[in-house]
Amino acid sequence: MADRLMIETRKLTRRFGDLTAVDGIDLSVTEGTIHGFVGPNGAGKTTTIKMLIGALRPSDGNGWIRGQPIGSTDARATIGYCPERPFFYDDMPALDYLVYMARLCDVNRREAAEKARQLLDWLDLGGSVYARAGGFSAGMKQRLGLAQALIHDPELLILDEPTANMDPTGRLSILDKLKELSRERGVTIFLSSHILSELEQIVDSLTMIDHGRIVVSGQMEELRKRFSGNHYLIRTSNNAVVLQGIQGRGYVREAWLDDDDGFVHAVSDEGHALRRRVLDIVVQQGLDLQHLSEERVDLQSIYRKTMGMQED
Prior knowledge:
Blueprint: E1 5-16, E2 19-25, E3 28-30, E4 34-38, H1 45-53, E5 60-65, E6 68-69, H2 73-78, E7 79-82, H3 94-104, H4 109-122, H5 138-150, E8 156-160, H6 168-185, E9 188-192, H7 196-202, E10 205-210, E11 213-219, H8 220-228, E12 231-236, H9 239-246, E13 252-258, E14 263-268, H10 271-285, E15 289-294, H11 299-311
């Protein structure tokens, strides 16, 4: 059975006068996965999110949330949303605020109160059940915003910079919670963040957007392979000998020694032949093989290469 899509858009576009903020983007997000949505400031991320949640109407194109048109009552009922800077009634205690938000989603009061307490405990706010939101720190407000997004048990969670204003411990805790929601509860998460090193820890797939257009999209493992460029890392007890032994081979496009990281770098379209040659050199010369692998490209490198290509 084919994987079902939680989010799908076709040529989704939003204009503000002469400005095209989102320019014909196609998104596909599978149910139960975590999808990263990244790009520079002004790229169109927040505008896209606002169309997905029904806060803005597209100028052109279409979108669906679990098969329902974006902006429809059924689509909105599927979503839990937390903006980068959630708004609260400062004088309202955390528990009352969550119950109030749950009631707006048609959750009965007793169930809402129980669910609110569970969420506050789960998000490490159990000691602030009756504290007023106006006295919360920025990190606590971010956690309360996430609790609000989850209060009605949504199938899709849309988050804009969910770890903003948090210390490292708080950010790691939230990332663990998001992984738990996806892996154990099957919640689909559409996540926008500027902190690429953190995003990489949890996303299954990714879309990069710039100037309102998608510049790259796909599964993380596919993207790593695509951007690795058949780049291999080699380290032995005598890197100079290895470098000399692989240079000039027809299957080695480029090879060099980087004194900063201590690796021989080789670009080859025939990884098997390269590995065999390196092992032959190691055996023949009696070297100690310390490392031999294909480079694992991180998200920051993919971002740099992608946005660099856009600038050329």
